[in-house]
Amino acid sequence: MDFNLDLVYAELADLHPIARFASHSALDLDRIEVFSPASRPRPGTLFIADICTCMQQKHDIAHFGSFVVLGYDADANHLSLEGLNAIFVPATEGLPSPHELLGRLLEYRMRLDGWAEGILAAMARDAPLQEVFDVAATMFSNPIMLSDGALYFVLTAGTIPEGFHDRLWTPAIETGMCPSELYAEAWAACSGNAFGRRDAYLVPNAMDDGRTYLVRNLVCGDAYHGCFELVDVNAPFTPADLALADRFGDMLNMILPRKTYPQIAEASLGPLRDLLAGSAVRPRALECGLAELGWKVDDSYFVACFSGADEEDEAQSAQTLRRISRRYPLARFYREGASHLMIARNDDYPLSVMHDRHARCDAAPDTEPRFLAGFSSLFMDFSLVRTAADQAAFAYRHADKGAYAGRFGISRTCFYDDCWFEDAAERLALDDGVHQLLDRSIVELALFDARDGADYVPTALAYLEHGCSAVRTAEALFIHRNTLAYRLKRIKAISGIDLEDLAEKGFDPLRIHLSLRLLSKTGTTPSPFPSSDADRK
Question: Is the domain of 418 the same as that of 486?
Fold first, then answer.
């Protein structure tokens, strides 16, 4: 690993060196040599010389490269060394000779090489990110914290003192989310491009508590993948820490295109956007992200996929989004391909109200729709938002099909709950439709319903969907419990299925429920099953 004068200066701290060079984090040295009359100028070389050897030179040695000068006397007149890019080591008892110092610096460079190789080896074998940072922390006196692109806490490494409390770090570690408002304010006060800088930088006294933070962004191309930072709880920062942080950041940037570590592989746009993109999001990070929106993890929600009838024009697409976002200000919107996704809580915009409004087909039959939309089912788990989006996209593709579409004004819509069996048939490759999934007894019940209009299929479905509770089912159907009891007896007599004792009689509740849903959604009269081999021919 290459090095620079800042790293050498930190290594020689016990000799109380004097810096006569400009600090920077670039590692511009790759060779160490004891200076002699035979030495020649060479960029990237660190020369070690005693003060007498330097003073005896008849020509200017400033252009040779960088120097470590031993035996410097601040009171002496060393005008010939003015302008030398060097570290001056004062003359003290126990001062090493140039060759002794050469051995020490070569050993230090071997430690740097081992550190860099350890990090690269861990990344090459796809070791856990925690292990990579544990190796990196061995060269720093202060602890490291990693945050992803949305400023969600990922991990810490290094030594954190007992009883440690910090206004930035402690909330991040405890909640899984960095206090982004505090970060933005503190970082922006230090740099006008705090989250776009590609070099390590210091944020002094960020929280008015005297602490300084060292920050290194992880930026690949134009994408911000997060940052790691150190806080000076164990030792003050030195320019060497900036150089090492930049080197470590460069190594992390090399693996970002490989997407080995999902925490920093993609530029995060927030937990919902990450979930829609198929990326994993930690539960605590999702909870914090939803809290920023005023939502809770147990809120019921749905996803709508929409666009204009002809969205080839980008301006028209933007106009469509503006109109819908103004109408549903509490929802969140995301672009996906040529269409848009809307995520909305059921408490804000009840899905059942939308369904009922569009099911009325309140539009002139010959009116051409100018807006298409598909709606998912209701979900209670935001980690399944990608599944909800897939449902909405499926319904969106069926919005033009009259069998399932609803109309309201210039809109044509489709709800997944109305066409889900088409999705099931498509996924299961049922060439003959979903009738292969029907239970014979439920078909007989549906045929009886079709003849007599007795509503036994809706009654059976409601009974199962309300947990086989007579009270809740009667309330949902707006009938008396005695009426429900009579219907259940008739269902048993017609189909042979005792809904009040399914397990005892050996019926398959899943298949019965599926059959009831299929027959209640299709709105068609099923064909009787063939009763013999002769009928099947």
Answer: no
